[in-house]
Amino acid sequence: MSRIIQTRQAKEDILEIWTYISAEDSSAADRLVRQFDQLFQKLANHPGIGSRQDRFCEGLRCFPLGRYLIFYFPIEDGIQIIRVLHSARNWEKLL
């Protein structure tokens, strides 16, 4: 199984997303977190599928999930998740 490392900031992003959505629908928030986990595994198994974001940082990649963008680095045997951000946010400044 491929490794998935989440930075402290990525974990905080996911918690913030879950908290926001769960205020209206905790089941939907739980489903989204499961979707993130499934996508993280897919990215860890196939790290090259995300679009390159070298203009921000050499080797950085991005992959969408609905309205969210997952920013990550391919690493040996997996990925390191850097941020999980809503696409409507000024994500370029948050990277």
* SSE-based structural type: alpha+beta
Low-confidence stretches: none
User: Could you describe the largest sheet, including whether it forms a barrel?
Assistant: 5 strands, mixed
Ends distance? 28 Å
Helical content class: 40-55%
Q: How many H/I helices?
A: 3
What fraction of the residues are assigned to beta strands by DSSP? 25-35%
In the CATH scheme, the class would be Alpha Beta
Average pLDDT taken over every residue: 92
H/E topology pattern: EHHEEEEH
Number of domains: 1
The beta-strand count equals 5
CATH topology: YaeB-like fold
Query: What is the CATH architecture descriptor?
Result: 2-Layer Sandwich
Radius of gyration: 13 Å
The global form is globular
Strand order, largest beta sheet: 1-5-4-3-2
CATH superfamily: RelE-like
InterPro entries: RelE/ParE_toxin (IPR007712), RelE/ParE_toxin_dom_sf (IPR035093), TA_system_RelE-like_toxin (IPR051803)
Pfam families: ParE_toxin (PF05016)
Keywords: Toxin-antitoxin system
Protein name: Toxin ParE1
